[in-house]
Amino acid sequence: MKTFWFVLQCNVCLCHIVLWHGGGIHQLAFSIMLFVISFKKILNFPFTSCLLCTFLNFRFDVDKFLGVMSMIYTIQAINNSTEILPGIILGYEILDTCSDITTALADVFQLLSLSKAPDHQAEFLCDYTTYRPFVSAVVGPGYSDISVAVGRVFQLFMMPQISYSSSSTILSDKAQFPSFLRTVPSEADQIKAMTLLMVQMNWRHILIIGSDDDYSQQGVTALVTSAQQANICIDFSQTIPTSEITNLLPGLIQKVRESPANVVVVFAEATFAKVLLQRAINDSVKKTWLASDTWSVSSFITTLPNIDTIGNILGFSFKMDQVNGFADFLDNLPSSQWSRNQFYEEYQSLRAVCNSSSISEIINCISSKKADSVTRKFLGPDGFLKELIEAGTPIPFNVFLSVLSVAHALHDLLGCDSTSCNGSLEFTPWMVSLFSFHFHADIHLSRLMRGSYSLYFIFYNFSLCNKALLFSQNISSSCSSQCKPGEMKSSNSCCYMCVPCPEGLISNITDAASCFPCQQDEYPNNTVCIKMPQTYFNWTDNFAIFLMIFDILGIIIVGAIAMIFTIHYTTPVVKAAGSFMVYVILTCLLLSFISVIFFIGKPTDIKCKIRQIMFAISFTCCISCMLMNSFRIFVAFMFDPLQQHILKIVYKPFMIIPVFILLEVLILVLWMTLNGPTTYLQTSEDNQVYRCSEGSLVAYYFTHGYTTFISLICFTFAFVSRKLPHNYNEAKFITFAMLVHLIAWMIFFAEFSYSFGIYLSAIQALTCLISSYGVVIWYFLPKCYIMLFRKEKNTRENFSLHVYSYSQKTVNETFQKAHETTNPPENRV
Length: 829
Prior knowledge:
Layout: E1 3-10, E2 33-39, H1 62-79, E3 90-96, H2 101-111, E4 137-139, H3 144-157, E5 161-163, E6 180-182, H4 187-200, E7 205-211, H5 214-229, E8 233-240, H6 245-258, E9 263-267, H7 270-282, E10 287-291, H8 299-302, E11 311-317, H9 326-331, H10 342-353, H11 359-368, H12 383-391, H13 395-413, H14 429-433, H15 446-449, E12 457-463, H16 466-472, E13 487-489, E14 498-500, E15 505-506, E16 516-517, E17 522-525, E18 528-531, E19 534-535, H17 542-567, H18 572-576, H19 580-597, H20 605-636, H21 641-650, H22 653-675, E20 678-683, E21 688-693, H23 697-720, H24 730-752, H25 759-789, H26 796-822
Parallel strand pairs: 1-11, 4-5, 5-6, 7-8, 7-9, 9-10, 10-11, 19-21
Antiparallel strand pairs: 1-12, 2-3, 2-4, 13-14, 15-16, 17-18, 20-21
Helix pairs in contact: 1-13, 2-3, 4-5, 17-19, 17-25, 19-20, 19-25, 20-22, 20-23, 20-24, 22-23, 23-24, 24-25
C-alpha cells in the first residue's frame, strides 16, 4: 500500500481558526478525548475519569494517547517557563468521552460545576455572566459530531472551546457556536482541495461513502455538490448508520466492487473507515481510496494487516510538525511520576505484552488487547512512542497549539509581562473568550521548548505533494474514454460515448458536453475556428488598378479641357458649346469620375450610398445640359418660323435642367429612405464576400433608367440635327456621346441580373467610366482639337460661311422638291 497526504497551510490568527479533534484514547468505533485546562494558582488537579471506556468495550488508541501526553507535556513546559504566565501554575483534568455523545455530555456538566461546589455540582441559572465554573477553558473534543453536541452547552456559558481536529463546517457558525475555536481548517476547505485534486488528476467518476454522524453527512453532502459543480460524475454516494454497519456493509462492498468508478472517497471517522477497509481486505476489493483528514494518517488504519492489497490510499491531513522536546519527553517517561494517570497505567500494561520490532505490530497488538487482563507493567525506556511521532501524526502538534493558545489568551487577560501577572484571578470564561487566541510565528521560547518553532494554521491555500501527484498520474477513474477536441459527449450521464461534432460545429476542449458554431466571420477547421478571409473589390485587384488608372486619367483630361476652354473662352467653338454651360458639364464629369473611386475598397453603408447618389445626380445634370444644347441647335436650324417660335418659347435651360435634376433627387431620396443601398455580407463555407446590396431593385433601375431616358431624348434631338454644317457638327458629337452611354448601360442592365459578388461593383464602375469617357472623347476632344490644331476653323467668318452654304443648299433642295410635286414629269411611251 502507498499512502500520501496533502498538507493545507495558512498563517491565520488562532482566535478565528481553531480546531477540535474527536479521537479518544479508547477507540473502537469513534472515540474522543475531552481535554480540560483549569486555571489554579498552585494546585495541580489529579487525572481522573468518571466513566471507564473499557466498560463500554472500547480499545486503546495510541494516537489519542499521544495527544494526552502532548497536553501534559505542554502544560508542564508552560508551568516551568516564566515567559508566558510567570507566577501562575496551570492545572488540568483529562476526561475520556469514549467517542460517545452521552458520555461527553456527562463530562461537560462535571466541568461546568461551580469551582467551590462539593461533588461537582452545576447550577441552573438564567444569567451565567458571573458564573465561575470548575474550569476556565476546554481543549477538545476531537470528533466533530461530539464537538457540536458539547458546543451547544458550552455556548450558554461562553466557555472557550478549542478543538484540535473537529473540521465540520457547522462549527464555523458563530451564531450557534460563539465560543468555539479550532486550530485546523473547516472541512469546506478540505472538500475544495479534494475536488481540485480530482479535477487535476482527471478523476471523473467516483464513489462517496460515509457514516451517519454529523461530520460524515455534512461532508458527503458538500462533496457531492462540489464534485457535481466540477463536472465529476458520482456513481453513487451512501452513508451507513453505524448501528447497521454489520448488516449493510457486505452489500456496500459488493456495489463498490461492481462499480466502474475506480476512486472511492471515504468521508468518515477512523473507526468506521477501519471496519470498511477491513471488509474490503477480506473481500479482495481493489480501488483507489481517498481519505478524509480523520483517518488519512491514523495508525489505527495504516497498520491493518494486508492493507496494501486493497489498492492505493491517498489522503488529506492537517499540517504536521514536531513539538520540540516532546520526543525526548516520551522517551524518558518516569513511571513512578504517573501513578495516578489511569491512561498511562493502561498503556504500560498493554505495552508490556506488546513488544515487537515493528511499529505496526505494536499498534495492532495494543488496539486488540485489554489492559485489565495484564498484571505486569512496561518499565523500560519507551522508544516506540518516539518512533511513532517521528513517523507522523498531527494530533500532538495540534494539541500543543490548542494548549499554547489558551496560555497566551490568559497571558493577555491577566496583563502578564516577563516577571509577573497583575490581573485579577476572579474572572469568568466569557472574559477569556474576548481575547484573541493568537501568537506569532517568530516567538522563540528557548527555555520552554528548547528551540524555536513556527505555527502554520490551515485555511484554504494548499499545496499538493509532488510525489503524490507524480504517483497518482497513473490512476484513472472514468467509465468513458476522454473525448478529444473535435468530439463531444453523447449524453450528460457519467458513462457516455464520444461522437464527432456535427458539420459546421467544433469543440476545442477535452470532454466537451456539446459542440458550438464559429462566429459569423469564422469557419470551422477541425478543432479551431479560423478567421474567414474577407473578399471585396480590393485596391490591389488588377482590374481595380486598371480602372483607377483610367479614372485618374479622366480626371486629368477634364482638368486639361477646362484649361483649354478657359483660354479659348471667346472663340466660336466655346460659344457654340454653350459657353458657361461647358463648365457645368465638365464639373459633372469630374464628379462622375470621382464616384468611381467609391466602387473600390471594402464597402460600407455610406460608400454604397454615395457612389450611387454622386454618379446619378452628376450624370443627370451632364446629360440635361447636353440635351439643352442639342435642343438649341435643333431650334436654331428650324426653317419653319411658326415651329421655331413655339420651340423657342419651350427652350428654358435654366428651368428645365433644375427640373430634371430635382426629379432625379426625388427618386434618390425615396430610394435611400425606404430601402437604400447597404453593405451585404455573403458568407460561403470558407470565405466572406463584402459587397453593396442595392436595396430596392425597382428604385435602382428607376434611378439609372431615368438618366438613360434623358440621354435617349438627347440622342433623338442630336440625331435629327446631325446634318448641320461640317464645321458646326455639335449635334453629331452629342449623338455619338449619347450612343456610347446608351449602349454601355444597356449592356450593364443585361449583365446586372447575372453578375454577383465583387464583380458587380467592378462592372458598374466600368460602365460609369465608359459613359464619362464617351462625353469626354466624342463631345469635348474634337472641340479641343479644333481650338489647338485647326485654329483657322475656329473663326466667326468660317462659321458664318458654312452656315450660309448649308442654308442655301437647304433652300434649293426645298424648292426643287416643291417643283417636282407641282409639275410631275410626263409619261412617255
